[in-house]
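Note to self: the last two entries modelled the partners one at a time, which told us nothing about the interface. This time every component goes in together.
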Amino acid sequence: MSRFGRLVGRDLTLALRQGSDATIAVMFFVLVVVLFPFGLGPEPNLLARIAAGVIWVAALLASLLSLDRLFQTDFEDGSLELMALGGLPLELVVLAKATAHWLVTGVPLLVAAPVLAVLLGMNRDGFGTLELTLLLGTPSLSLIGSIGAALTLGARRGGVLISLLILPLFIPVLIFGAAAIDSALGGLSVRPHLLILGALLAAALPLTAMAAAAALRQALE
Amino acid sequence: MTEFAGSHLSCLRGERLVFVGLTFRLAAGEALVLTGPNASGKSSLLRMMALLLRPWRGGLSWDGAPVADDPDAHRARLRYVGHLDAIKPMLTAEENLGFWAALHGHARPERQARRALDRFGLERLAAVPARYFSAGQKHRLNLARLLLAPAPLWLLDEPTVGLDHAAIARLEEALTEHRAGGGMVVAATHTDLPLPGNRALPLDAFAPTPGDPDGRPS
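The predicted structure of the combined assembly is written out below.
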């Protein structure tokens, strides 16, 4: 466990010293959401109606931004093959790196989301659910993304490829994330949606770790 | 008596056979030096020994037991230093090594890292980010990883490239100590490596010949 924490800590230190990933993801998130009022016109009812979906789609795209480099630098400088040589199973390496990715790109989205919800005029009733869905959903995005990041290692234009591979897999998270907020705004129970988001996360933890580790082994051959 | 051996190893890279029918045997305290021209498969053989590359034919054994039966145990007993240095430019020398020491399970990785830096003459650079290191210093930092945790088998790919005389002497000292403690060394090199009593394994002797029954992949 301490080895796992150590790897998460190293990735966080690297992300903070390089300093770009976290700010780029959250800036992108804010900008995409802010574009909608410009494109659709300042019609409060319309914006409030689509706020949940817009915020969720923007969150998907923002967490996709830095995914292509999840394993890339470690692959290029030889760290990944040394990690494959022991100490920590590759499955846990995947989980540690996905955790660091979520802390760097997912958590800032949680912080920015309520501000954007205000901007789009979302009803107050939806705020708590918005945060809950992002809290349950964004870790799944980082985990599912790790499969794409591992599969596209060494590929040219990996960043484009990863979007095509991974965005379809994000759809279930998007559906239940946005639906939960709509239910909250409509006065319906959000529990089923949140349970499904939690189930998606629980399933993603072991499955993505195994799939991404298998892809990494393939890439290291 | 510990013994690391490979029998009838063949290496296929892409569509090209690199070497065929390679057999070696290495006992505790011994050193094997891989020689041969470029592209004769020195690095590939080292990666094969590190289980980073699967042999096309043949297999490796440790104390008579096939390595493929328990790859994790084999990974735990080897240290591999390749061409890639696995150094993060944004981290200091001590942080770089400390991370690997922690992955090897050290309770106090920083102290272990400083000790290893000391051995390769990098103690004064411990707190300097690795992006300010010269190529030789980076290479020494890479080699210092060998000393983080004891392991019986060292696999070194061109360990002397870019090193000055003082650094080669330090490497020699580390290698002698490692072998005196019963460790094994396999090194690929073009230049003379200070490994007294080593056995040479010229890889060009195992180059595939046309018409070899084990030759072309079908």
